[in-house]
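Quick log. Single chain, no ligands specified.
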Amino acid sequence: MLIAKNIDKIFKQGTKEVHAVKKANIGIAKGERVLICGPSGAGKSTLLHVLGGLDRPTKGDVSFQDKSIYRQSDRKRSRFRNRFIGFVFQFYHLLPELSVLENVMLPAMIKGGEPIKKIKDRSGEILKSVNMHARMKHKPAQLSGGEIQRTAIARALINSPEVIFCDEPTGNLDSKTSGEIYSLIYDLSKKNHMGVVVVSHQDLDKKFFDSEYYMRDGELVNVRVSQGHVRSE
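-> predicted structure:
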């Protein structure tokens, strides 16, 4: 479904160059759950942003369903992200002035082509699926960390993405809440046959993932691919 080939990402800091990602290769099948782990500063988040169409690589390319992401215009790439990709970040990025329901509705309203009532009803159903329906009129400041992250997951799901990219999604949560969030992501992935890519420096339960990669100093190494997982062509 998504293939990245020979990805390099170099940042300039004054006269110095920082080689954040070095010749990374990764393929993600439909419905596959992928973990990219490694220490802080290894280049995991940078790679995730490249895979999700947020940050153009210095070298290499990313294709989704056999179409290059970075050969598209910025406008087309933005539409691609809105339609096919969901993002869940460590710091949530919910809009504080909007309610839970309004935050979840927002990507669908940006996408357009659907009546507001239908978007509202669908958002309510998604919030039910993440156990946030009772809190949908609350503002983010009135929620716990786990509730905020559940809202962020619901927002990522509103446009029925093919894959969700999660950047340290439980970095600010306690271990019990973290386990609940990963169980939720796992269940939603299985139910919707949705791909998931998680980057984390935490020691996570590997049973949630089909494939595992390790990243250090910008280099990505495939550690494990589940024998029971069948890759889609």
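The longest strand covers residues 16-28.
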